[in-house]
Amino acid sequence: MAYPDVVVVGGGVVGAACAEALTRHGVRVRVCDRGAPAAATTGSGEGNLLVSDKEPGPELNLARASCRRWPRLLAELVDEIGPSLADAEWEPKGGLVVATDETAAAPLLALAERQRVAGVEAVVTTDVRGLEPHLAPSVAAAVHYPEDAQLQPVLATSALLAAVRRRGSEVCAGVEVLGVHRGSRVTSVRTKNGDLPCGAVVNACGPWSGRFAEIAGSSLPVEPRRGLVLVTAPLPPQTVRHKVYDADYVGTVASGSADLVTSAVVESTRSGTVLVGSSRQRVGFHESIEVRVLRALARKALALFPVLRGVPAMRAYGGFRPYTPDHLPVIGADPAVPGLWHATGHEGAGIGLAPATGQLVAELMTGAEPHVDPAPFRVDRPALQGRALECA
Amino acid sequence: MTVLVVGAGPAGIHAASSAAGVGADVVLVDSASRPGGQYHRQPSDAPRTGALAVVDHPRVKWMPETWVWAVERTDQGFRLHAQVGPADAPGRPCIALDGEALVLAMGAYDRVLPFPGWDLPGVYTAGAAQAMAKGQRVAVGRNVVVSGTGPFLLPVAESLLGVGARVRGVLEAGSPVRWALQPWLLRGSLGKIGELAHYAKVLSTGKVPYRTRSAVVAAHGADRVESVTVARLNHDWTVASGSEQQVEVDAVAVGYGFTPQLELAIALGCRIQRALDDSDVVVVGRDQATSVPGVFAAGEITAVAGADAAAAEGVLAGLSAAQSIGSSIVDKQVSLIRRKVLRKRDFARALAAVHPVRSGWQSWLVDTTLVCRCEEVSLSAVRSAVVERGAAGMRALKLLCRVGLGPCQGRICGRNVAELTGLPDIPKRPIASPIRLGDLASEPDGSGG
């Protein structure tokens, strides 16, 4: 068995996208996941591909590049791994952001204006009912974002990993990377199966990236931020057509609060179920599901879609998202440990940002021209310095 | 100071009774409209006698048709979030029930193994067939075959005979002749031998053939069951070749042991372990205490052992729960019950040893056999998610092929899928029973911490 050039630690969507992009550039990769790929943060996500919730700036640029990349990538994979494996339920359904009162309307319209200047398609709509017939009547303003899309994160990740395998690289489940050996640079990683020589390591451990950075001899202020999603019984098609969310979601995403913040995000899936999010809470890796959070989600969802009143919630699931203090992902080489790379910190946007992140890692590693400016995401940016890890 | 008891089957009613007996206030909840659970199921006009009379005890607040959908720890103890009213009715009021100690006695539900045609109308769980017979006096069919493993098949056959069905056979997949080889396990369970003799008589009077090492391995019919394939089984439960026979029936009752209902225990963080019959159960100490202080468990959720064991455990759990919140109890009383519980646990062990589900059942399936009925996921779809898409964990598997994501949330198929794929399934279901969004939204503020 040939040694890999690069070990990617973490088989979530970001690790899978890095491995896909690296193998596309001819790099031999080994993906090591301590559990099952796509089973943690990725498996607890809704599959958001959003430009709508982002202020103009580096994250929006990355998001736009990624939103363009996903459908092309999946289409390319059809040739490589076949249509069935490449099907990730990608749906360019568009987003609809709704301000339910006048105080929320002005900031929403102002954001849409700034986004338009940055090139985003953000259409102030007066025919809300035409787009979403079941939306509550009390809508003060609404903006339609045709670029927003959705896919099923576990299917998408498995498609990327299938391509990685097809290209002769390996994906290992149940293999935890316990240590990183280095001289002047990374020489191998240590697993329970022994040492695995490699030239570089990519930390794609999501909310656990801070821990892995320490294992690898560095540090990174990535913390878990908890989110909950309610899943309903299946509804007739077209009950909820877009990814519909309350304008206060943008503020929720940008908030750094450790306390519970909730905001309505409602969308249907191909199977007919409706996903009701979203909550954000910094509670470490605390797993229990609180009724007050579920209640808050239900209330906010009904404020947007009263039609959901009689629909049963079948399940709820929680996940941890990788949170950084400045809400920007961390992508690039770690100057403190040559050979160590990070691709993490996407918080709730990892599904959407994964392909551009993977591509950027591959470009930086192989010396190709980066397709987006990597500077804002660099590991040694000031916002990430001097912050101890608050959450062990 | 209140003891909350969830489940009013044999374990729950005895827990409520013993806790109230030593002075504790008790709230007893069950989703059914009558106490007794599956074992004591009766027509709705039957009088409440014996242990069932606990619901009339002055210190017991009996709450029928109460569906606990979530549980949380509070500063003082525990809070049950529940809805009151008939199953699925819209607008059932949401209530919160607080207590300082909690007895979990949710019981278990039938385990069913899939086979070609098991999704046809006319295939029932053994428990459902019995419930319809005992509760509504309705037979699931005129010509019924009972198939599965374990002593529970016998009372099911009896119930069916009692409502006029013709029982074409009781097919026991195992070989319970091994009972005789384990007499040490049966010590103290002599009553069980008497029960077996009773059932032998019932079956012979009803002219019901009882066959071991046999099972229904396929059901056939256009719109509903018209016939089944009955086969002899090898030791590992693969079909003995050439032994298949077609039998005309209009209903099948299937039961391969039981799956404990663990949602609330898991939500509370109680330690869970794998029992001898490969079901997951709540770990309890000698006073029925779980790993979570203040939470006690009794009955089938601690190991499937039948109604007598459940009742004994219930008594002990009720006393322990009452004691944990200040009731004083007599030690001698407790040690007697403890011994009884230990004897009953021996019986559970014997049961598990005699009635294991063997892996050969997997060979009854064909590619198109549905493994998950709710989402209509076939065996080949599950296999392809593992082989082609690389599913290495249950959560990923579910999201790759939708197995276990339907209304039953994997309650029926979870264990079978885990065995078929080798991927462990932890039945984490924080919403223990579906709740309408409107009802959830109407939960009063201040409840739920």
From TrEMBL, chain B:
Taxonomic superkingdom: Bacteria
Q: Which CDD domains match?
A: GlpA-like_Fer2_BFD-like
SUPFAM superfamilies from the UniProt entry: FAD/NAD(P)-binding domain (SSF51905)
* Residues covered by the FAD/NAD(P)-binding domain: 2-314
Under Gene Ontology molecular function, one entry of this record is:
oxidoreductase activity
Record keywords: Oxidoreductase
Domain BFD-like [2Fe-2S]-binding residues, every copy: 370-420
Q: What is this protein called?
A: Pyridine nucleotide-disulfide oxidoreductase
Q: Which organism is it from?
A: Longimycelium tulufanense
